[in-house]
Every structure is written in C-alpha cells, then in structure tokens.
Amino acid sequence: MQFDEIQEIFFQECEEGLAAAEAGLLAYKNCKEDCETINTIFRAIHSIKGGSGAFGFDALQAYTHNFETVLDLARSGDLLITPALIDVLLRAFDMLSDHVTAIRGEGDAPDDKEVTDILKATAEGRPPEIVAIEDPASKQAGSTDLAFSFDDLMKSLGEAEVTAIGEHSSASSQWSLEVRPGKGALANGGEPMLLIRELLQLGAIFLDTDVSAIPTLDAYDPEEAYLGWTFTVPMRVTEAEVRDIFEFVLDSCDLHIERRDDEQHDTELHRSVAPPVAAEPAPVPMPQPPATTVAEVVSAPSPQPVAQPAQNASQSIGSGSQTIRVDLEKLDRLVNLVGELVITQAMLAQKLSVNGLASLNELTDLDQLTRELQDSAMSIRAQPIKSVFSRVPRIVRELEQQTGKQVILQVEGEMTELDKTVVERIGDPLTHLIRNAIDHGLESPDARIAAGKPAAGVVRLSAEHRGGRILICVSDDGAGINRERVRQKAIERGLIAADTVMADEEIDNLIMAAGFSTAEAVSNISGRGVGMDVVRSNVEALGGRISIQSRPGQGSTFTLALPLTLAILDGMIVSVGAQTYIIPLTHIVESLRPQASELKSIGNGRQMLNVRGTFLPIESVGTRLGIDSSTQDPTKAVLIVVETDSCGQSVLMVDAILDQRQVVIKSLETNYRPVDSLSGATILGDGRVALILDVEALTSQSTRRLAA
Amino acid sequence: MILTVDDSKSMRMLLRNALTQRGYEVVEAEDGVAALEWLRDNSPGLVITDINMPRMDGFGLIEALRGETRWDSTPILVLTTESSNEKKSRARDAGATGWIVKPFDPEKLASAVRRVLH
C-alpha cells in the first residue's frame, strides 16, 4: 500500500473523528451526554493528533495538542464541563475542521492563534477573557506550553552533553557502563538479554559479570534478576543512545555510565572472549546468566520465538467493510447501460408478447434479474446524506453568534442514502432553509420567553425514505409564517391582487414565488440575493418537490421530497386519446372505474369523486393537455387517485391503463425544453416516446382552482 | 508474530508497513475486545497496543492479559502520544513492557520491538 493511500485513509479517519467529536460536543450542548461522551470526543481528537504527527502535518499536530490537553483535563475531571467550556470546545472544533480541510489541500492553513490561546488559557484554568487583556509579555510567558518547554530543555541539555563529549573525545576515550537490571526487569515480559544484545551491536565490549547479588538457593526467586554486567562502550556512541536502549527499564535498572580516558582495563583480552557483534542479530556471545535461564524455564508456556518473516504479510481481525474506489465516469456509464438494458428488456418483452410468448419463465427471470441489476447499480451511486448534514451544525453555530438566538439542532436520519448527484446538489438549498429557519423562523430569546417558550429554539433536520422518495424536513418551533405580512408583501410586489382570496397554504407558498423576500431589512444571513424561489427551482431541478407547513406560534416545516434516483422510475402507462403517458407509481394510491352515483358535479363542467366519503376533485388529463379525442365521461374512463406532498389526494382521469413498468427518464429540459405538467419523457418497449406526467403540477392547479 | 491493536486504520497500516518490511508477521485488531478474541486461540510474540480505544482501551487489554499466566510474560508495547515520564510509568505500572511514542519513526519502532521481542 502506498503512503498516499494510507494518508487518504487518515483523511477519512479525520472526517470520522470530526463527526464523532462534533456529535459528542452537540450532545453536551443539548444535555444529552453520557459518561462515555467526553471519552469519545477525547479519543477522536487524540487519534487525529496521533495521525497528524505520523503524516507530518505539524501545524495540525501542534493545534490538536492544545485541544487534547483541555479535553484530557475535562476527561479526568480537573476541568468542570460547563456550557462555557463546551462553547470553547466547539470553537476549537471549528478551527480543527479548518485545519483538516487545509491538510487535504482544500484551503490555507487557518490562523489558530486566538483559539490556541483560549485553549491554553482554559487548560490553565484561566477564563479566556483574561487572555485578551493581558500584556504581550506575560501572555507570551503564560502561553508557553509546559510540555514543550520541558522537551526543549532536555534537547538543549542533550546537545550540550554531546558537545562536551566531542571536545574531550580522543581515540582512546570510552564509556564505562555498569548495568544491573533491578527488581522487576523480568516482569511484564521484559528480557534484559535483548537489551544487552543491542548494546553489543553498538560496539560495546563485555567486561565482567557481577554475580555477588545471587542469593542462596532457598531465597532464590526465579523471576528475579540478580546479575550485573560491566561494559566499555565506544565514545562515538552517545550517552543518550545508551540510555535509550534501557529506556523501558530505566526506573528499575541500575545504570552507571562514565567517561574513561585511561586504559586501566585490558579490553583486548575481553574482546577475544566477546567480540563486538555486527548489525545482524546473533546469539549473544556471553555466559547465560542463570537468572534469565531459570526464568525462561519457569514461565510456561514459553513465549513464541522471534517472529518469522512471513510471505503473506498480514491478516486482519475485527470487522470493517472493504472498499474500492471507482472512477465516477465508469459508474455513470454502468448506470446508463443498465438503463438501456431496462429499455431493451422491455422491448423484448413486448415483441415476445405479440408472439404469445409473454409467459416464458426465462422472460420472468430476465425481468427479475434486470430489476436487481438496476437496484444494485443505483445503490452504488447512493450516498448517505451525512456529508451534507454534517455541515449544518457549524452553520447553526455561526448563526447563533450572528443573531444572538439560541438554537438546539436536532438531526435525524443522516445515514439515509440518496443518489450522489442529489447529495451534491442539495447542500445549497438545505443550507438556505436552515438559515431561513434560524433567521426568520425562530424568535429572539426574549420574544420566545414572552411567548411562554423555552429561550432556545429547536431546529430539526431529518431525512427518511418514504414511498420511494426521500423526505428531507427542516422544521423550527418558531413563530410560524406571518401570513398577514406575507400577503401584504405579495400585494406590494404585485404578485397577487389586493382582493385575492387565498387559502393559508397558498399564502405560505407565496414565499417561494420569484422575487419575494419578507425580511424588513435584508439581513446578511439568509438574504443573500437568493430567495426561496431559487431553493424551489434547485429542488425541482432534482426532480423533487418542496412543501411548507406552518402554524402560527408553533413553527414551520419545509419538506423536500426527492427521488431516490434521477434515472429510473416505476410508472403506470396510461392512454389518453391516441397518446400514451406515464404516471409515476409513487403518486398512485388506487385506480377505479366509478359508478355514476359516486360522482358529483360542482358546475363549470367539473366533477368530484366520492372516495369512501371524501370528495376529491377530478382532473381530466385529456382536457388539461388539450387532447380532443380523450374520454370525457368519467364512468367510461379510468380514474386514478393520486397523492402529492403539497396537495394531498386528488383524481386524474385517463382513458385506460396499459401497463406498469420501470422506465428510464429522459430529460425534457436537456432534450427539448421544460413543459408545464410534464416532468420528462421515456422510450417505451416498442421504441415510441411517452411523456411522464408531472402529477404535482397537474393536481396543484386543480386544487388551486377549486380553492379559488 | 506481532499483534497490533489500534482503532485507527491508518495507524495500523503504518505499523504493518514498518513491521512487515522488517520481516515480521503482523496481525491487526481494532480494539481490546477484538484483540482478546483473537488471543483466545493465538499466541503472538509481541502485542503493540494503542491506549485510547473504544470498547476496551489499551490499559484494559494489558490488565486482562497480565491477569492470565498464559500471557504474563508476553511483551507488550503501548503506543502513546505522551512522552511524559508520568505516562510512561503509568504504562509500566499497568504491565506494559515498554512504549512507543507517536508519531514514531519506523527505525525507532523497530528498535523498540527488538528490545522486547524474544
């Protein structure tokens, strides 16, 4: 595996870590934390710090160090987790996000000085405000990190030592080293002989073994070390290197190291006994100390011998789904091909049915396989909406600061999957809705308290699968849409006549009319020259719908209904006159041929259908689309009860139902031009083009006319 | 055989790269629980474990291993980002044989392994 691939994995881990940390911080903010929460946050930041060092992202590492310090204090209980602390941590978190963005090469390294100062102040138990008023000199001193300065000190000491050695160094100079692994040197799986071996590899020469500490047999503890050794070590080896070898046992080991310029020991003699060992690991050429030998026998089962070089490098235990990265173009081509396959399969089915072979088992199998293939191809393109939702908490925090409102963000269904294209394009409309909800929807804390509500408003963001579509809801518990003001504004802007009678729902929908803005002063938050009309057209370009439910004093909900995939839909094929149309199955509730008694004329040539006690308006597709040859008598036609998000149930009248199948959507916008009441086209099995009805547009106009 | 225990995949890969290049066989586990599961039927020559992990952290793993005679002499190295003496002695007290300070230089890792792997 290449380094940059591992690095890419690290980037993904950063994102996961950020998400986990943010979820944890928000849990605190919303008082939904448990005792594990702070540990989760700590672990996330800790991992990012560890990786950033390993991959050489020094700025990120330095930054996370301070972040981690504060979290560690909070984790250990040394810092009380207060709302103020959570705010500091959230701020630090945002800065960390910027850092992570920067290391991915998607932005410049952020200036984290201020946040770092706040973190350091927090770690030292000072309120952050004090930092701001401190004079530069004391601030400098105060912000010096203790651990770092200690390291620097050690480093400079080390350097001084090296210089000193260099000055006095001569060919005959050597270190004299005495080592006595103390009590516990064999504990925890330690093995002093390995350290001695490494020492010899550095060119150390074994001089003597001190056996004076070996006790009598009855006092002998086989798991204890009793031997000591003396060595000479060449001057080119630094003291730090020697101490480094014994790093793990320094606290239990007696280690004396001193310079020796004279030649009082006859090293030549010992050299013949214990020649320096070359770089290759070799049996230690020295008497085996009894203590070690006994210990090895006693500790059963004996540890594994030195690891064997392995051909198959490694195996992994624990779960974790394997992934493969695929060029998006290849994927799109696959999805396209599957689409064409669906059409061809449909054509084949049609030709065979003409020859009376429609009931062939193979044909049924092929149909089944094609469907499954299609589902799999679509699921490859599907992505969780998490990547979009994860940006929202930050937007909310920024808005909180800008507006002075308090917001509790609730997010649900972030693992809901939808088409990659939709995920990519839904971000902007969603951001706008969130901004709207906070800027226009929620009241100020004072106004909320006056209205008997909690000071903090709730903004809820959710995603779910429902009826073959994805519903994304943005709701707030604010004041709801001020219909009187909306109406006034619409009249002022000439959008409606002053005497127009409108249903509440219609007034609400006015805010999505082109060029409408209710804010008295256009704020720099949601009023960015982009209105709700742009949000609506963005959503509609994705084949989606947006609807509004608002209740005065209780808040508003904006619902986006988006298609699972942009490429294929399940449709009912119907005929109207000589034409063939597709009605998306997702809208259809039922179809029926009515009795005359179930119909009720409401004048103007329009009729209602009594569906189990509820009267629904009938919309003749033929009349709407200007097809003269269509059936006009409902009792001779087929009535299809459809349901839409914005208008509830209504009835479409067509001549006959021909078939029901999946069709590949071909865009009218790109191949022709947008047409009212039609959402697209498709190619049928016989090669003819059929148009797909825009049920929402057809029915919303019929209900609007009724309301008027 | 060396068992590496770390919840970070990238860290495990860095370890694996550095160790396999030096001829060691490496097995990975995501956390203490996964490690213990694997250790039920296997005996590595060395365990290298991170400290901060979900489910069961490094100290928990060491404690569990040192509680059994079967593991009481298996060397264990902990991965730590702290080079403070306090952290080191805590690792030592918990039963670790030694430690590797992250970020690690592959050479340092190799020497640490050589110092504890029989």
Secondary structure elements and their pairing?
The complex is a heterodimer of chains A (708) and B (118).
Chain A: H1 3-29, H2 37-54, H3 58-76, H4 83-103, H5 113-123, H6 128-133, H7 136-143, H8 146-168, E1 174-181, H9 192-201, E2 205-210, E3 228-234, H10 239-245, E4 253-260, H11 267-273, H12 290-298, E5 314-316, H13 328-354, H14 361-381, E6 382-384, H15 386-389, H16 392-403, E7 406-412, E8 417-419, H17 420-441, H18 445-450, E9 456-466, E10 469-476, H19 483-492, H20 504-510, H21 532-541, E11 545-551, E12 555-563, E13 568-576, E14 579-584, E15 588-592, E16 599-601, E17 607-611, E18 614-620, H22 621-625, E19 638-644, E20 648-654, E21 656-664, H23 668-671, E22 678-683, E23 689-693, H24 695-707
Parallel strand pairs in A: 7-9, 14-23, 18-20
Antiparallel strand pairs in A: 1-3, 1-4, 2-3, 6-8, 9-10, 10-12, 11-12, 13-14, 13-21, 15-19, 16-17, 17-18, 19-20, 22-23
Helix pairs in contact in A: 1-2, 1-4, 2-3, 3-4, 3-5, 4-5, 13-14, 16-17, 17-21, 19-20
Chain B: E1 2-5, H1 9-21, E2 26-29, H2 32-39, E3 46-50, H3 58-66, E4 76-80, H4 85-94, E5 98-101, H5 106-116
Parallel strand pairs in B: 1-2, 1-3, 3-4, 4-5
Notes on the protein architecture:
- The complex is a heterodimer of chains A (708) and B (118).
- With 708 residues, chain A is α+β, with helices and mostly antiparallel strands.
- In chain A, 43% of the residues lie in helices and 21% in strands.
- Chain A has 5 domains: 3-144, HPT domain (Four Helix Bundle (Hemerythrin (Met), subunit A), Up-down Bundle); 169-297, Alpha-Beta Plaits (2-Layer Sandwich); 328-383; 385-563, 2-Layer Sandwich (Heat Shock Protein 90); 568-707, SH3 Domains (SH3 type barrels).
- In chain A, the strands form 5 sheets. A 6-stranded mixed β-sheet of chain A has the order 15-19-20-18-17-16.
- In chain A, helix 3 (58-76) packs parallel to helix 5, helix 4 (83-103) crosses helix 5 (113-123) and helix 13 runs antiparallel to helix 14.
- The two termini of chain A are 68 Å apart.
- By secondary structure, chain B is α/β, with parallel strands linked by helices.
- Chain B has a domain at 1-81: Rossmann fold (3-Layer(aba) Sandwich), CATH 3.40.50.
- Chain B has helices spanning 9-21, 32-39, 58-66, 85-94, 106-116; strands spanning 2-5, 26-29, 46-50, 76-80, 98-101.
- A 5-stranded parallel β-sheet of chain B has the order 2-1-3-4-5, sandwiched between helices.
- In chain B, helix 2 (32-39) packs parallel to helix 3.
- The longest helix of chain B is centred in the N-terminal third of the chain and has 13 residues, at 9-21.
- Chains A and B meet through helix 1, helix 2, helix 9 and strand 5 of A and helix 1, strand 2, helix 2 and helix 5 of B.
- Strand 5 of chain A pairs parallel with strand 2 of chain B, so a sheet runs across the interface.
